[in-house]
Design brief:
single chain; 259 residues; mainly beta; 4-stranded antiparallel beta sheet; 1 helix; globular
């Protein structure tokens, strides 16, 4: 008890917390948090939840990428995004990342070659504090678009994630949402896994309508093995949804922790 007559509510011992919190704070060896957030501006059946509004174009071989903006202000000395970080996997599904200095509407090529892209995030910006234009990361030579970071968001809203080699993803919850104004509008989202050769399997499906937030907590976790990709795919729409959203959260576990 302290001198003012109150018992201390926190002692000097170790702090106990649920596993997801510990993983998020990097306090559990071999465990880390995965969270991806996606948006589709025009959902249709057979498409994934990312800004490209199409079935996500997974690459089958590692390739150089290029990044550019729709605004000249996203440049080294501009008021918008100055540098962006690519997070992905190499040809062996090992983590690979780099920070690229933007050059406005002129494409800048990556140093690394990427088989998968798991994230695109702003690192530094000018006085505008975020990206002024839509930033596109695509296969070099104006090839297939990977993620798109819409103006003002600072990251690519893409609900697509590939598990690195030697790891296992334990998906803990998904949050799908349907844009629109009437209850006659709806989207059905499917929890979708792609194997390393892109064989696809859709398991759980989630029905959503506008204004009704639907969070699905997977009590025992959904296991996604190393080198597998997971997305939330639109499997059905009713009427004309204006847009769709999905987030996926989970714990990434080093497989050495599972033996």
């Amino acid at each position: 008890m302290s001198g003012n007559g109150y018992f201390k509510s926190v002692d000097n011992g170790g702090l106990l917390m649920p596993l997801p919190f510990g993983a998020s704070l990097s306090r559990v060896a071999g465990h880390s948090r995965v969270a991806v957030y996606g948006h589709t501006p025009s959902p249709t059946a057979g498409t994934d939840v990312w800004e490209g509004a199409a079935a996500y174009p997974f690459q089958t071989v590692a390739t150089k990428l290029e990044i550019l903006s729709s605004s000249a202000s996203d440049a080294a000395a501009g008021t918008g995004a100055q540098t962006m970080m690519i997070q992905g996997l190499d040809t062996n599904f090992n983590p690979l990342s780099e920070t690229i200095t933007m050059n406005g509407v002129t494409p800048v090529q990556s140093a690394g070659t990427y088989l998968r892209v798991n994230g695109l995030n702003i690192v530094t910006a000018g006085s505008g504090h975020t990206n002024a234009g839509d930033i596109t990361l695509r296969v070099t030579g104006a090839g297939a678009t990977q993620p798109i970071a819409r103006a003002g968001y600072g990251y690519a809203k893409s609900c697509v994630y590939t598990v690195p080699a030697g790891m296992t993803l334990l998906a803990t919850d998904v949050l799908p949402e349907c844009g629109g104004v009437t209850t006659t509008t709806g989207i059905v989202f499917g929890f979708t896994r792609f194997g390393p050769t892109l064989a696809m399997q859709i398991t759980n499906e989630y029905t959503t309508i506008p204004g009704a937030i639907l969070q699905r907590t997977i009590i025992t976790g959904a296991v996604v093995p190393a080198t597998y990709a997971v997305t939330l795919r639109v499997t059905k729409i009713t009427s004309t949804p204006t847009e769709g959203f999905c987030s996926l959260n989970g714990i990434l576990v080093d497989n050495t922790q599972l033996v």
